[in-house]
Amino acid sequence: TDAIRPLIAGNWKMNGLKSSMAEFEAMLAGAGPLATKADLLVCPPATLVGAFADRARGDKVAVGAQDCHPKPSGAHTGDLSSEMFADLGATAIIVGHSERRADHGESDALVRQKAEAAWRAGLTAIVCIGETREQRDAGKTLHICGSQLAGSLPDGSTAAKLVVAYEPVWAIGTGLTPTAKDVEEVHRFIRGVLSERFKGEGAKIRILYGGSVKPSNAAELMGVANVNGALVGGASLKASDFLAIAAGC
Ligand code: PEP
Fold it and tell me: Active site: which residues (predicted)?
Protein backbone atom coordinates (compact mmCIF):
# COMPACT_ATOMS: atom_id res chain seq x y z
CA THR A 1 0.00 0.00 0.00
CA ASP A 2 3.05 2.26 0.15
CA ALA A 3 2.54 3.04 -3.52
CA ILE A 4 -0.80 4.72 -2.84
CA ARG A 5 -0.50 8.46 -3.33
CA PRO A 6 -1.53 10.20 -0.10
CA LEU A 7 -4.42 12.64 0.11
CA ILE A 8 -4.44 15.49 2.60
CA ALA A 9 -8.00 16.81 2.79
CA GLY A 10 -9.13 19.82 4.77
CA ASN A 11 -12.65 20.01 6.18
CA TRP A 12 -13.45 23.62 7.01
CA LYS A 13 -16.85 22.71 8.51
CA MET A 14 -19.04 25.78 9.13
CA ASN A 15 -16.13 28.21 9.02
CA GLY A 16 -15.08 30.78 6.47
CA LEU A 17 -16.30 33.98 4.87
CA LYS A 18 -15.42 35.72 1.61
CA SER A 19 -12.44 37.17 3.45
CA SER A 20 -11.06 33.62 3.83
CA MET A 21 -9.90 33.73 0.23
CA ALA A 22 -6.58 35.11 1.48
CA GLU A 23 -5.97 32.01 3.60
CA PHE A 24 -6.87 29.77 0.67
CA GLU A 25 -4.53 31.73 -1.58
CA ALA A 26 -1.75 31.16 0.95
CA MET A 27 -2.42 27.43 0.64
CA LEU A 28 -2.22 27.61 -3.13
CA ALA A 29 1.01 29.59 -2.88
CA GLY A 30 2.66 26.95 -0.71
CA ALA A 31 1.22 23.86 -2.34
CA GLY A 32 3.59 23.48 -5.28
CA PRO A 33 6.43 21.52 -3.67
CA LEU A 34 4.01 19.42 -1.57
CA ALA A 35 1.94 18.39 -4.55
CA THR A 36 4.79 16.20 -5.69
CA LYS A 37 4.10 13.81 -2.81
CA ALA A 38 0.42 14.18 -2.00
CA ASP A 39 -2.91 15.25 -3.41
CA LEU A 40 -4.29 18.28 -1.61
CA LEU A 41 -8.00 19.01 -1.21
CA VAL A 42 -9.83 21.77 0.65
CA CYS A 43 -13.54 21.45 1.44
CA PRO A 44 -14.86 24.88 2.45
CA PRO A 45 -18.50 25.58 3.28
CA ALA A 46 -20.81 25.48 0.27
CA THR A 47 -20.83 29.29 0.11
CA LEU A 48 -17.14 29.31 -0.83
CA VAL A 49 -16.85 26.25 -3.07
CA GLY A 50 -17.41 28.19 -6.29
CA ALA A 51 -15.02 31.02 -5.50
CA PHE A 52 -12.30 28.66 -4.27
CA ALA A 53 -12.67 26.36 -7.27
CA ASP A 54 -12.47 29.32 -9.65
CA ARG A 55 -9.36 30.58 -7.92
CA ALA A 56 -7.72 27.14 -7.79
CA ARG A 57 -8.34 26.20 -11.41
CA GLY A 58 -5.15 24.76 -12.87
CA ASP A 59 -3.50 24.98 -9.45
CA LYS A 60 -2.29 22.26 -7.08
CA VAL A 61 -5.16 22.24 -4.59
CA ALA A 62 -8.49 20.65 -5.44
CA VAL A 63 -11.75 21.89 -3.95
CA GLY A 64 -14.49 19.75 -2.48
CA ALA A 65 -17.82 20.04 -0.68
CA GLN A 66 -18.92 18.82 2.75
CA ASP A 67 -22.27 17.17 2.14
CA CYS A 68 -24.95 16.82 -0.51
CA HIS A 69 -28.55 15.75 -0.93
CA PRO A 70 -29.01 12.31 -2.53
CA LYS A 71 -31.17 13.70 -5.34
CA PRO A 72 -29.91 15.76 -8.29
CA SER A 73 -32.58 18.47 -8.01
CA GLY A 74 -36.13 19.04 -6.83
CA ALA A 75 -38.32 20.32 -4.02
CA HIS A 76 -35.79 20.21 -1.16
CA THR A 77 -35.56 23.68 0.28
CA GLY A 78 -32.12 24.57 1.55
CA ASP A 79 -30.44 21.43 0.21
CA LEU A 80 -27.66 21.26 -2.36
CA SER A 81 -26.95 18.51 -4.87
CA SER A 82 -23.74 16.89 -6.00
CA GLU A 83 -24.49 18.17 -9.51
CA MET A 84 -24.46 21.73 -8.15
CA PHE A 85 -21.05 21.20 -6.59
CA ALA A 86 -19.71 19.58 -9.75
CA ASP A 87 -21.02 22.60 -11.64
CA LEU A 88 -18.98 24.86 -9.34
CA GLY A 89 -15.80 22.88 -9.98
CA ALA A 90 -15.69 20.61 -6.92
CA THR A 91 -14.01 17.24 -7.36
CA ALA A 92 -15.03 15.49 -4.14
CA ILE A 93 -17.70 15.48 -1.43
CA ILE A 94 -17.34 14.46 2.21
CA VAL A 95 -20.30 12.30 3.23
CA GLY A 96 -21.20 10.59 6.48
CA HIS A 97 -19.16 12.88 8.70
CA SER A 98 -19.90 12.12 12.36
CA GLU A 99 -21.23 15.65 12.82
CA ARG A 100 -23.85 14.97 10.15
CA ARG A 101 -24.57 11.52 11.52
CA ALA A 102 -25.08 13.11 14.97
CA ASP A 103 -26.59 16.53 14.16
CA HIS A 104 -28.86 15.32 11.37
CA GLY A 105 -29.42 11.69 12.30
CA GLU A 106 -27.88 10.44 9.07
CA SER A 107 -28.06 6.67 8.69
CA ASP A 108 -25.61 4.42 6.89
CA ALA A 109 -28.22 3.95 4.16
CA LEU A 110 -28.50 7.71 3.61
CA VAL A 111 -24.72 8.09 3.59
CA ARG A 112 -24.54 5.41 0.93
CA GLN A 113 -27.12 7.27 -1.18
CA LYS A 114 -25.06 10.44 -0.82
CA ALA A 115 -21.90 8.62 -1.91
CA GLU A 116 -23.80 7.35 -4.94
CA ALA A 117 -24.99 10.91 -5.59
CA ALA A 118 -21.37 12.11 -5.59
CA TRP A 119 -20.51 9.45 -8.18
CA ARG A 120 -23.54 10.33 -10.28
CA ALA A 121 -22.08 13.82 -10.64
CA GLY A 122 -18.61 12.46 -11.38
CA LEU A 123 -17.18 13.32 -7.96
CA THR A 124 -15.16 11.30 -5.46
CA ALA A 125 -17.02 10.36 -2.28
CA ILE A 126 -15.06 10.68 0.97
CA VAL A 127 -17.03 8.44 3.30
CA CYS A 128 -16.41 8.95 7.03
CA ILE A 129 -16.74 6.28 9.68
CA GLY A 130 -15.62 5.97 13.28
CA GLU A 131 -16.56 4.90 16.78
CA THR A 132 -17.59 6.96 19.79
CA ARG A 133 -15.65 6.91 23.06
CA GLU A 134 -18.31 4.67 24.60
CA GLN A 135 -18.07 2.22 21.73
CA ARG A 136 -14.28 2.12 21.96
CA ASP A 137 -14.39 1.57 25.72
CA ALA A 138 -16.84 -1.27 25.17
CA GLY A 139 -14.42 -2.94 22.74
CA LYS A 140 -16.78 -2.41 19.81
CA THR A 141 -14.56 -0.28 17.55
CA LEU A 142 -14.02 -2.82 14.77
CA HIS A 143 -17.61 -4.01 14.93
CA ILE A 144 -18.91 -0.44 14.56
CA CYS A 145 -16.51 0.41 11.76
CA GLY A 146 -17.39 -2.81 9.99
CA SER A 147 -21.10 -2.15 10.11
CA GLN A 148 -20.66 1.49 9.01
CA LEU A 149 -18.54 0.32 6.06
CA ALA A 150 -21.03 -2.37 5.11
CA GLY A 151 -23.92 0.08 5.19
CA SER A 152 -22.30 3.24 3.88
CA LEU A 153 -20.16 2.09 0.96
CA PRO A 154 -21.88 1.56 -2.38
CA ASP A 155 -21.21 -1.48 -4.53
CA GLY A 156 -18.71 -0.81 -7.27
CA SER A 157 -16.37 1.32 -5.15
CA THR A 158 -13.04 2.03 -6.82
CA ALA A 159 -9.90 3.90 -5.82
CA ALA A 160 -10.89 6.79 -8.10
CA LYS A 161 -14.42 7.09 -6.78
CA LEU A 162 -14.04 6.36 -3.08
CA VAL A 163 -11.92 7.54 -0.17
CA VAL A 164 -12.61 6.19 3.32
CA ALA A 165 -11.88 8.41 6.31
CA TYR A 166 -11.49 6.74 9.69
CA GLU A 167 -12.39 9.38 12.24
CA PRO A 168 -12.85 8.26 15.84
CA VAL A 169 -15.62 10.57 17.06
CA TRP A 170 -13.84 11.14 20.38
CA ALA A 171 -10.73 12.37 18.54
CA ILE A 172 -12.52 15.02 16.47
CA GLY A 173 -11.81 18.51 17.69
CA THR A 174 -10.66 17.27 21.09
CA GLY A 175 -6.88 17.24 20.74
CA LEU A 176 -6.98 13.52 21.57
CA THR A 177 -5.69 10.93 19.13
CA PRO A 178 -5.55 7.15 19.24
CA THR A 179 -2.12 5.59 19.58
CA ALA A 180 -0.33 4.67 16.38
CA LYS A 181 -0.97 1.05 17.31
CA ASP A 182 -4.72 1.64 17.59
CA VAL A 183 -4.79 3.52 14.29
CA GLU A 184 -2.87 0.70 12.65
CA GLU A 185 -5.31 -1.90 13.95
CA VAL A 186 -8.38 -0.08 12.61
CA HIS A 187 -6.79 0.79 9.27
CA ARG A 188 -5.66 -2.82 8.79
CA PHE A 189 -9.21 -3.92 9.51
CA ILE A 190 -10.65 -1.40 7.02
CA ARG A 191 -8.16 -2.50 4.37
CA GLY A 192 -9.28 -6.08 4.89
CA VAL A 193 -12.94 -5.14 4.50
CA LEU A 194 -12.22 -3.13 1.33
CA SER A 195 -10.10 -5.87 -0.21
CA GLU A 196 -12.66 -8.51 0.56
CA ARG A 197 -15.54 -6.55 -0.94
CA PHE A 198 -13.85 -4.66 -3.80
CA LYS A 199 -11.01 -7.09 -4.58
CA GLY A 200 -8.09 -5.41 -6.39
CA GLU A 201 -9.64 -1.94 -6.11
CA GLY A 202 -10.01 -2.40 -2.39
CA ALA A 203 -6.26 -2.66 -2.06
CA LYS A 204 -5.89 0.76 -3.71
CA ILE A 205 -8.69 2.79 -2.08
CA ARG A 206 -7.26 5.52 0.13
CA ILE A 207 -7.93 5.27 3.85
CA LEU A 208 -7.46 8.60 5.62
CA TYR A 209 -7.05 9.09 9.33
CA GLY A 210 -8.97 12.03 10.82
CA GLY A 211 -9.26 13.44 14.33
CA SER A 212 -7.04 16.13 15.83
CA VAL A 213 -4.36 15.84 13.16
CA LYS A 214 -1.92 18.75 13.54
CA PRO A 215 1.60 19.52 12.38
CA SER A 216 3.13 17.99 15.51
CA ASN A 217 1.50 14.55 15.12
CA ALA A 218 0.99 14.31 11.35
CA ALA A 219 4.23 12.55 10.45
CA GLU A 220 3.72 9.83 13.05
CA LEU A 221 0.12 9.20 12.05
CA MET A 222 0.91 9.33 8.32
CA GLY A 223 3.67 6.79 8.86
CA VAL A 224 1.27 4.12 10.09
CA ALA A 225 0.62 1.22 7.74
CA ASN A 226 -2.52 1.65 5.61
CA VAL A 227 -2.83 5.34 6.49
CA ASN A 228 -2.98 7.00 3.08
CA GLY A 229 -3.42 10.57 4.19
CA ALA A 230 -5.46 12.69 6.55
CA LEU A 231 -8.80 14.39 6.89
CA VAL A 232 -8.04 17.56 8.81
CA GLY A 233 -10.61 19.76 10.52
CA GLY A 234 -9.44 22.61 12.74
CA ALA A 235 -5.85 22.63 11.53
CA SER A 236 -6.97 22.95 7.90
CA LEU A 237 -8.23 26.49 8.51
CA LYS A 238 -4.70 27.86 8.67
CA ALA A 239 -2.55 27.61 5.56
CA SER A 240 0.66 27.21 7.56
CA ASP A 241 -0.75 24.28 9.60
CA PHE A 242 -2.38 22.61 6.61
CA LEU A 243 0.81 22.83 4.56
CA ALA A 244 2.93 21.61 7.47
CA ILE A 245 0.66 18.57 7.83
CA ALA A 246 1.00 17.85 4.11
CA ALA A 247 4.76 18.18 4.42
CA GLY A 248 4.69 15.46 7.08
CA CYS A 249 3.33 12.75 4.81
C1 PEP B 1 -12.98 16.36 11.13
O2 PEP B 1 -14.00 16.80 11.64
O3 PEP B 1 -13.02 15.83 10.02
C4 PEP B 1 -11.74 16.49 11.89
C5 PEP B 1 -10.82 15.60 11.68
O6 PEP B 1 -11.66 17.53 12.80
P7 PEP B 1 -10.37 17.95 13.68
O8 PEP B 1 -9.15 17.81 12.80
O9 PEP B 1 -10.62 19.37 14.07
O10 PEP B 1 -10.32 17.01 14.83
Answer: 97, 167
Q: Are strands 124-129 and 162-166 parallel, antiparallel or unpaired?
A: parallel
Q: Say if residue 233 carries a ligand binding annotation.
A: yes
Q: Give residue 232 CA to ligand 1 midpoint distance, Å.
A: 5
Residues 6+ apart with CB under 8 A from 237: 10, 12, 15, 16, 23
> What would be the CATH architecture of the domain defined by 7-247?
Alpha-Beta Barrel (3.20)
Residue type, 136: R
Q: Strands of 44-89 (E only): list them.
A: 61-65
Across residues 164-179, what is the average pLDDT?
A: 98
Q: Which atom of ligand 1 is nearest to the CA of 236?
A: 8
Is any atom of ligand 1 closer than 6 Å to the C-beta of 233? yes
Write the ipTM: 0.96
pTM reported for the whole predicted model: 0.98
- Decide whether any atom of ligand 1 lies within 6 Å of the 9 Cβ: no
Is 129 within 8 Å of 210 (Cβ atoms)? no
